[in-house]
Amino acid sequence: MNTGTKRMVALFVEKSYQQWVVRDPEGNFWLLPAVDDPWGHRQPFTPTPETELEPVPGHYTSLLGFPF
Asked: 44 with 30: CB under 8 angstroms?
């Protein structure tokens, strides 16, 4: 029996960059550029105390080509 918890993907908009930010199932944050394949061009992102992440409804994740 698997009693571990599965982390979900979370999608945000970072207000100062005005770009998508994704938290993957492992808890890593990624900044996604505005290109045709944003996940393929992602960059590591480290939130700071000044970072303003605004949650975005989950149905937008289908637009970004996530592999999970």
From this structure: yes
* Residue-level pLDDT at 1: 47
Tokens in use for 67? 């592999």
Tell me which amino acid residue 68 is: F
State mean pLDDT over 14-39: 91
- Taking the chain, what is the end-to-end CA distance rounded to the nearest angstrom? 23
**Cα torsion angle, 51, 56, 62, 67, sign:** positive
Who's near 65: CB < 8 A, 6+ residues apart? 37, 38, 39, 40
Segment 42-48 shows an average pLDDT of 95
pLDDT of residue 60: 77
Whether 38 contacts 20, CB under 8 Å: yes
